[in-house]
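Quick start: read one record
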Amino acid sequence: MDSNNFPDCMSCDDGVLVPLSDFGAQGAAVHYKAWVCTNPDCEFNLKIRNGEIHINEPIIRGARVR
């Protein structure tokens, strides 16, 4: 997917949805497992877990690197 073709966010007018990947239980790559809005004030997210779609789950912020 070309980064110029990411979909507009469905929740705000200021961001686009970008894909995130992860690894499955057996270590295989799972591409496009989650989509998040690039607007930090929006926090819209869409995740696929065990074949189910989860929308707007809470976002856990990681520690800041200094």
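The two ends are 33 Å apart (CA to CA).
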